[in-house]
Automatic annotation (TrEMBL), chains A, B:
It comes from Aquibacillus albus. Coiled coil: none annotated. The gene is mtnK. This is Methylthioribose kinase. Keywords: Amino-acid biosynthesis, ATP-binding, Kinase, Methionine biosynthesis, Nucleotide-binding, Transferase. InterPro entries: Aminoglycoside_PTrfase (IPR002575), Kinase-like_dom_sf (IPR011009), Methylthioribose_kinase (IPR009212).
């Protein structure tokens, strides 16, 4: 990575102009800086005349965390590129197109999704997306099945595990999601009014046991190539299209982590509805929509995963009667456990979610936080015994 | 590996002479070719005058299997060297000393263990080794604990997983141990007189389910740095010393596979006692010794593993009450399951064991084979419910 330097805006435009078959010669490109600047520079580059555009994402060699700049490997861009390439083959409809990749510059040029909206925003605005559950359930089934030992040549899969060893990014998840929230750590950001609930979580040894078992799976179980960070800011939606962005956390891990991250995020919005409508009926209706979406998401995932299994199992042993049922039940249990962990860490861990934090009214925000903590704890405690996605709905409905 | 060539005997002697601080200048070195020639050249090189000696092990770029030469990566020597280095630090008493390593030649010069005897021979000769269980139980506890997420920095562990991705050698295990024995495969070598029992195994779907679950663990669970091939030909013993050789199968896998491989081999000898003594009392006594050794091996492993855990746990969550008990019970269950699988594949799979195959009397050999199959099947079927090592002893005693 000796040739690495962060691109100036002029260089970014020049680079975009040089990508073959994208912009017309001599196009007047316009650049907009849309990155968060914590991890990456992200530029939107467009040509009004032709209506063409792209996103340039350049990784920064550090990560701004706890006010400090922590060095962070640029290898994550190779990982993102490889994951986009693999998922693009398996699931082209949900994967942004890649136009160019420059390893030396830690740079990827990819499809502009400006006509889509971030899913978290859509949920906060109570939009209903009838195709979301089908699209993402299918994305999960296909990307996870086809990268697992169930479908792959088992020796090629090992080389892929090697190529996606991703210690620094996994470390962020292991620290901020799977460790700090269960200890009195300075990595937690706890609003004083919910301190009592958080203290109870810190003291709940039964809960810690479940989290430790889930963490063990995250640390050891190389089941499939995960997205690794599938929250609702990483899904872009318009009515007829659903795209999944941001693959730098990709690694071989337990399938339930991806599904659980997403369901946990949907239930955070469910918990946060307290703050987004004063109309009780409207709240109830949208909550019902969210639970229906969770149910459909899982159901779409499960039925497509089973269908792929029946059609593309790697060998005869995979088809042993009873194995698929045990496997899918375990995936459900992992999903439920990780969903619960995700909910807790996003309420009082280092990174929160807008669905709850943006609620201005302190009493409503507190209710939302307590809802999320109650649902999260119940999900984690149910993880080893669950047998149906309906149990998730029941847990949520019992709390709100 | 462009400089690789197989050493002539003269080159081997010259190389040995050049190793610093080993042989006196001008020593008259004597070479003995002791390799099997299927996978490696192994030379014993010694100087009678000084009494010094060493082993030179050079990997061959192929593997003779099913009468053919299958290409096999020389990278396995790097893996063996790295595993010897890591285990040598953790467990110097059970690890042969390494004098030199030549990556280009796929060559390791290591400690001569000619004053030790192969454990399989010792068992076949009914020798009792009172220190074996303690030595190897401790070796397993230390090498497996200290390379796991329980003890290691979890990011360093990931780099180690990467360095020990070992597709070609794992493939041998996956094919010959975890797949072919459960299908009508040409990779099995079935003596006609036990064909009926083997056919029953090929049709036993309940058994296949358990094997498939165990295989899933082998394929996905990066728990600790395993030896990967810990049978009784890879343990060298003299009364006061126990050494573990041959690390080329090393990879990150489920801890129970190593312990199970060894216990399975001990129970193959137990099953084979039919052929090694006409004195019923002698047979019974040695069988009792073997079961006592299995019990002590597990007990030593478990108590030392727990002690290391209590002293060296990587973080606070690992110390969560109840976690250690669940973890150790799972290790026992995996051990029992893999022990059973090992027993079956060594009776009618591609690679057999001398403890049974060398029994000249066909009726006694058949009894030995049927004993092993019966114990193996029972162990596999017990794998998910077992809670005590005593269950292994009970299963063995019920059969013979």
């Amino acid at each position: 990575m000796t040739n690495y330097h962060t691109l100036t805006q002029a260089e970014a435009v020049e680079y975009a102009q040089g990508i073959e078959d994208l912009f017309p010669d001599g196009a007047q490109l316009k650049l907009r800086d849309i990155g968060d600047g914590n991890l990456n520079h992200v530029f939107h580059i467009s040509d009004q005349a032709s209506g063409r555009s792209l996103i340039l994402k350049q990784a920064l060699p550090y990560f701004k965390m706890v006010g400090e700049s922590v060095p962070l490997t640029l290898d994550r861009v190779r990982i993102e590129y490889e994951a986009l390439r693999i998922n693009g083959e398996i699931c082209p409809d949900q994967t942004p197109k890649v136009y160019a990749y420059e390893p030396d510059l830690a740079l990827i040029a990819m499809e502009d999704l400006s006509d889509h909206t971030v899913m978290r925003r859509r949920l906060m605005e109570k939009v209903r997306d009838p195709l979301f559950a089908e699209h993402i359930g299918s994305f999960l089934a296909r990307t996870l099945f086809f990268t697992s030992d169930l479908a792959m040549d088992q020796q090629e899969k090992k080389l892929r595990v090697k190529s996606f060893i991703n210690p620094e990014l996994c470390n962020i998840t292991e620290d901020l999601i799977l460790y700090a929230p269960f200890t009195k750590s300075r990595m937690n950001i706890v609003e004083p009014h919910i301190r009592d609930s958080v203290e109870r979580i810190w003291e709940d040894k039964e809960l810690h046991l479940e989290v430790t078992l889930l963490r063990e799976k995250f640390l050891t179980k190389a089941e499939a190539l995960l997205h690794g960070d599938l929250h609702t800011d990483n899904i872009f939606i318009k009515p007829d299209s659903t795209k999944v962005i941001d693959r730098e956390f990709a690694f071989y891990g337990p399938i339930g982590f991806d599904i659980g991250t997403l369901i946990g995020n949907m239930l955070l919005n469910y918990s946060g509805q307290e703050g987004w409508s004063t109309d009780a009926k409207e709240r109830t209706n949208y909550r019902r929509y969210l639970l229906d979406s969770v149910y459909e998401l899982w159901t779409q995932f499960e039925s497509e995963f089973r269908e792929l299994w029946n059609g593309y199992a790697a060998d005869r042993l995979v088809k042993t009667p009873g194995y698929q049922n045990l496997y899918v039940t375990r995936l459900l249990q992992d999903t439920i456990g990780f969903a619960g962990v995700l909910m807790l860490c996003r309420v009082y861990g280092y990174i929160h979610v807008a669905d709850i934090d943006d609620i201005k009214d302190a009493a409503a925000r507190e209710r939302a936080q307590r809802n999320a903590l109650e649902i999260g704890v119940a999900l984690i405690k149910r993880n080893r015994s669950a047998h149906s996605i309906k149990e998730v709905l029941d847990i949520a409905l019992k709390v709100v």
